[in-house]
Automatic annotation (TrEMBL):
Pfam families: AIG1. It comes from Mytilus edulis (Blue mussel). Keywords: GTP-binding, Nucleotide-binding. One of its GO terms (molecular function) is GTP binding. Gene3D superfamilies: P-loop containing nucleotide triphosphate hydrolases. The lineage of its organism: Eukaryota, Metazoa, Spiralia, Lophotrochozoa, Mollusca. Residues 86-105, 128-152 are annotated as: Disordered. This is AIG1-type G domain-containing protein. Residues 10-77 form the AIG1-type G domain. Residues 88-105, 128-146 have a biased composition (Basic and acidic residues). It comes from the Eukaryota.
Length: 152
């Protein structure tokens, strides 16, 4: 799950076969995730998505088969890329909803803590006033007792 302060970056790499899409994806992720190959034949056959955490960022890179792929038709690749984009949009929406829910829960929690703290402070103040009142009353009673003793 994404940490609250983490920024999320999503990248989809498209381009011609052999143009270095998978190599770029690996360079961005600082890891050899996507298979790379020669310039003439298509290496990447299907869209592949990978997420890494780098310098406090969540980076999701999607590698796609090349346009002018030697195997699939461009139409098929475009459909795949379209599906991948739609999936990323759904993921983004889901993560936005999750963040909003977490924010709401956090705010409710903070509000509850504040309310309880205020109640506690009020009760403490009332208690101190009562102690003060009682001690003043005791003092008054004591003074009256002393006066009576003196008179007698
Ligand atoms: N000179 C040079 N070669 C590169 C560069 N990036 C990738 N290559 C080489 O180009 C070839 C193809 O790289 P890939 O990353 O597999 O290319 P691709 O676009 O993913 O290819 P497909 O998956 O087949 O569509 C490999 O031999 C890489 O080593 C670059 O920036 N400069
Ligand atoms: Mg590739």
């Amino acid at each position: 799950m994404a940490c609250q302060h983490e920024r999320e970056i999503r990248i989809i790499i498209t381009g011609k076969t052999g143009s270095g899409k998978s190599s770029l994806g690996n360079a961005l992720l600082r890891k050899k995730i996507f298979k790379t190959g020669c310039l003439s034949t298509s290496i990447t056959k299907k869209c592949l998505c990978h997420t890494e955490r780098l310098n406090g960022h969540r980076i999701t890179v999607t590698d796609t088969p090349g346009l002018c792929d030697t195997n699939d038709s461009n139409a098929e690749q475009l459909v795949q890329q379209e599906q991948m984009l739609a999936k990323q949009k759904r993921d983004r929406e889901a993560s936005r909803v999750k963040e909003e829910q977490a924010k709401r829960v956090r705010e409710e929690h903070e509000e509850y803590i504040k309310k309880k703290n205020d109640e506690l402070k009020k009760a403490e103040k009332e208690l101190q006033e009562r102690i003060k009142r009682d001690s003043e009353q005791k003092k008054r009673n004591w003074n009256m007792k002393e006066k009576r003793v003196k008179i007698n």
